[in-house]
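In this section we turn from sequence analysis to structure. A common task in structural bioinformatics is to predict how a protein folds when a small molecule is present, because the ligand can shape the pocket around it. The inputs are simple: the amino acid sequence and a SMILES string for the ligand, here magnesium ion. Study the lines below before reading on.
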Amino acid sequence: MLRFALRRNLQIVPTVIVVALLIFVIFSVVPGSFAASLFADGKRAADPQMMARLTQELGLDKPLMERFVTYVTDLARFDLGTSFRTRQPVIDLINDRMWASLQLAIAAMVFAVLVGVPLGFLAALRPGSVLDTVTMIGAVSGLSMPQFWLGLLMMYVFALQLNWLPSFGYGDGSLQNLILPAVTLGVTPLALLARTTRAGVLDVLNADFIRTAHSKGMSEAKVVRWHVARNALVLIVTTVGLQFGSLIGQAVVIEKLFAWPGIGSLLVDSVAIRDIPVVQGTILVIVLWFLIINTAVDLIYAAIDPRIKQE
Amino acid sequence: MTAPLLDVRGLKVAARLGDRAHPILKEVSFQIMPGEAYGLVGESGSGKSVTSLAVMGLLKKPLRVAGGEILFKGQDLLQLSKREMRRLRGNRVAMIFQEPMTALNPLSTVGRQIAEMFVLHQGKGWDEAQRLAVDALASVRVPNPDRRARNFPHQMSGGLRQRVMIAMALACNPDLLIADEPTTALDVTVQAEVLRLIKELCAERGTAVLFISHDLGVIASTCQRVGVMYSGCLVEENETQALFGDPRHEYTRGLLGALPRLGSRSQHGRQRLVDIDSIISDRSKLTETRFIAPRAAEGGQP
Ligand SMILES: Nc1ncnc2c1ncn2[C@@H]1O[C@H](COP(=O)(O)OP(=O)(O)OP(=O)(O)O)[C@@H](O)[C@H]1O
Ligand SMILES: [Mg+2]
């Protein structure tokens, strides 16, 4: 198990290197430059002198190869460069936002798991029941509802009408500020989890070994606890992992709506003004997040399913 | 005259699809004496598995019992509450299924899966139950039972898994073991071993067996009496020797006639396989006749 974990963790390193290279290549060939975006207001051409000065200042006049070497050597020292706009180290910018993003993603996921998994489970145990029907209709609605609209609705109801919760802002990380954005962000994974859990449990219930369990004279509750739960967990963990990974990206809309200082909005803002170092750094961090989640999922798999360690 | 252990009387099972009930078992009656091995043969879809599941009380929607009685030690299983039925199931009546590959939980050690029996029916703690599970594995002649108990099903061969199933089914020393094609999924050499194991263990412990198979050879070598099922009816029943020597029912004759025989070849060096439908004349009339031989032990009473 330990060896498996170690090997799985080491696999992250080459992936990160490849991704870093890809990011660099992509952003050296995309059209448009930070300098141009800073000066162009769409009416007049930018002042060429100013452009040249800025380009030189930012080191964008150096040959591609040289820039690449600098980028890689800096990266090896965990230096993600300096923002074109704010002239702050990118790592600091990300650092400021990372915690808020993690908070939001984790809170959303916890909410989704705590509500979605039990609902899916109960729905599967009583297919066709009122609970099942309501859950599945709810899940479809949850999946098809635009997030910003849901967010606005939540704001309107819980912040404006009921005045229970603050409508936006980070509020120095208070739990109250976290609730509305987290719940809004959590609705999609919740709906997905409820559905996959239900499908997964139904699948397990049809398995031959469940018939065996019944033939032993086990009560329904024991069958579920001893034989269904663990087997259904495999599918649930997959879904949680996939959702968790993409949550940071999905969070952009929510971050904008609730003025939440997350990494998603940092990325979008930086792309808009071609602040390449920040874009590169943010993407790298998001990729790293994906990889860590994936590794965690694989390790959990191996812990649940004895067949995986063997390969 | 001893009382039968299992006495199935006029069992009817129907499948409710929409608001129509389709008959699946039309009329199944048979008796199994304590310690007796009873064989059930018949073509695919004749209702052998449904019969065994009905006895176990494991019929799932849309199937349900539509009539008859299933007397076990004189008590009608159909009248028992769910709870009473659970106490019997696995404990007094146990079952082995056809597919050893999927009949065990892949995420749980086989030792634990056997141990569950002792926890469920004998109120043992897990530690003691695990020890008893090792003994149970030893009793089905699994080598290294200590180590094997910690194995997961995927680490075992089909034959070993079926032994685990047998150990599990016999764990609580049931009075009746139902074996629904327990060897069909295994290769031939392993089949013979597993068969012998079931036969010997049940004989040792005085466990009665309801043995279901397509394979007439298997039935002939295992069972004292045989029932032949056709299309939801038990159409003929007799002592094994008598039935094979003198099949009375047209369907049974067809079934036996369709058997390939070793050593009987035509002049071309090949044996023609006979299609059962070329032997029996009219399938629609088959369920109208019954040949239930009186049991010798009962002194000729039908
Ligand atoms: N869930 C079900 N719904 C409807 N019909 C069913 C169901 N299960 C079984 N049947 C029908 O009941 C009949 C008997 O099935 P059963 O499985 O008992 O046959 P069998 O004799 O065990 O055959 P095999 O030798 O293939 O195992 C079949 O015609 C089958 O179509
Ligand atoms: Mg069958």
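The pocket of magnesium ion (ligand 2) is lined by residues B 48-49, 180 (CB under 6 Å). As an exercise, try to locate the residues that line the magnesium ion site and compare them with your own expectations.
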